[in-house]
Amino acid sequence: MPRRQSQDRSRLKAATGVALALGVLALPDSANAEVNLSVESTAGYTNNFERRPEGSDEVPVSLGLTGTWIETTERLSADVEGRVYGVMYLNNTIDDDVLGQLDGSVIWWAAPERFAWVLENVYGQIATDPFSPIGPANRQNTNSLSTGPDWYILLGERTRAYLGGRYGLAQYEITDDDSERWLGIVGIDRAVSSSSRLGVQASAETVEFDSDLQQDFDRNAVYVNYEYARGEQVGLILNAGYTWLSSDAGDGSAPFLELLLSRQLSANVNLQLELASQFSDAGVRFAAGGMPGSGAGADPGVIPGGGAYEVRSGRGIVEFQRSRTTLNFAIEISDELYEAAALDRRRYDAQVSVERHMTQRMTGSGSARWTRNDYQSDGLDREDTDTEYRLELRRELGQRTSLSIVGLYASRGSDDPTTEFDETRGYLVFDYSLR
Fold first, then answer.
1. pLDDT tens digits, residue range 22-63?
2. Sign of CA dihedral 282, 80, 88, 14
3. When comparing pLDDT for 302 and 211, which is higher?
4. pLDDT tens column, 319-350
5. What residues have CB less than 8 Å from 434, skipping those under 6 apart?
6. Residue 28 and residue 40: Cα distance in Å, rounded?
7. Could you tell me if 285 and 270 are in contact, meaning their C-beta atoms sit under 8 angstroms apart?
8. Which residue(s) pair with 393 in the sheet?
9. What is the largest CA-CA distance in the chain?
10. How many CB atoms lie within 10 A of CB 191?
């Protein structure tokens, strides 16, 4: 198939997915469903919209539709968030564009607590060149789809076996990095108390790339699974074992660890800790980021052509809440060790955000983020440091309308001067809720 035709089809499939998901949001409310739709219009100014060393100014305006669908019944569990919007550039320095983001998960229980079918999709934009700042000239639509069954077999009142399978598809609009994956999981666990389960699981996964320039690989893992929950006070998920990777470039193995701990330290303070050691790839990282713009789905660090890599990471989040104020602080450190490419890197990420309800109708918020990447590029050591500061003032104009004023400053310092930039941006956002 010609590459241009493949790109057009990739864009069409991803855009169709966004349209279908937002169409579902038009379903009527029920006692178990929460459906929200809103129209959002934005107008602003930026002095460096392409984020280049010597950028040009631009006046972008946009009109979009944002929606969420959350529903939980005996047979259906849905959590979908999507956005589609058109952007016009009034200075005509670049063509107008239509963009969108989607993070959706739908689970249909054919037999409640026995057999379910799962559909998950993440759609957004990542950089075409992951080593340069993301922007209108360095951006591509990306879609990650995963679907398959979950089957639970009861072996008594407290023990159950589990069989699961997934088919996955990752598509990139421009770069030739599309892939398919097949995943199977088998396991058995037992309720050791009213609040915990302990079991053993094994998984086998095959990933095949469309391009011959990338190495297909198989990934297997065997691990112990432990889950514990005590109301909203404490939550723990632990997977610990060993994992193996096999490809034409060679074989590798590593400890397998996934730890997610959440604990309420006091009435106002919550702590979350995440640790990981495993083999990963760009498709997994993109899909795990959640709603693009707040996670890996919009992260310029995603490297589609990098292939499989071993990741060791740790992340801590502290949240402080009072009646009118919310404060969050997060810090993350990760090492990525690539199997077939000289792209090894260490990433540091720190972010602080605060939100304050100043009056019944007025809310102010601010955030600061600092990110540093140490890695190799063309055989040379390189360091990139990104900073971003954001302030927002939001005023509720009525039950359905609001107006926000947003100011943003972003910059990058790098060993490669061609990727350095400074940008100052300000814009107004008018939001009207349809339901």
1. 555 555 556 577 888 999 999 999 999 888 898 889 999 999
2. positive
3. 211
4. 999 989 999 999 999 999 887 667 888 999 99
5. 37, 38, 39, 400
6. 21
7. no
8. 364, 405
9. 68
10. 16
**Nearest-5° angle of CA 325, CA 329, CA 330?**
145
**305, amino acid identity:** G
Nearest to residue 257, comparing CAs of 210, 306, 299, 310? 310
The structural architecture, per CATH, of the domain 3-433 is Beta Barrel (2.40)
pTM, to two decimals: 0.86
Residue with tokens 């666990």: 189
- C-alpha distances in Å from residue 425, one per residue of 39, 57, 77, 311, 391: 22, 10, 39, 34, 11
> Do residues 252 and 244 make contact, with C-beta atoms less than 8 angstroms apart?
yes
**Helix or strand or coil: residue 81?**
strand
The partner residues of 278 in beta bridges, in order of sequence, read 311
How far out from the chain centre does Cα 68 lie? Answer: 16
CB atoms within 10 A of CB 344: 15
Distance (Å, whole) CA 396 – CA 402 = 4
**Rounded Cα gap, residues 255 and 382, in angstroms:** 28
Q: What is the pLDDT of residue 187?
A: 97
Beta carbons of 60 and 86 less than 8 angstroms apart: no
Q: Identify the bridge partners of residue 181 per DSSP, sorted by sequence position.
A: 168, 207
List of residues 6+ apart from 153 with CB closer than 8 A: 160, 161, 162, 163
CA distance 108 to 71: 11
Which letter, b or e, does each residue of 398-419 get, where b requires 16 or more Cβ atoms within 10 Å of its Cβ? eeeebebebebebbbebeeeeb
Cβ neighbours, 10 Å, residue 385: 16
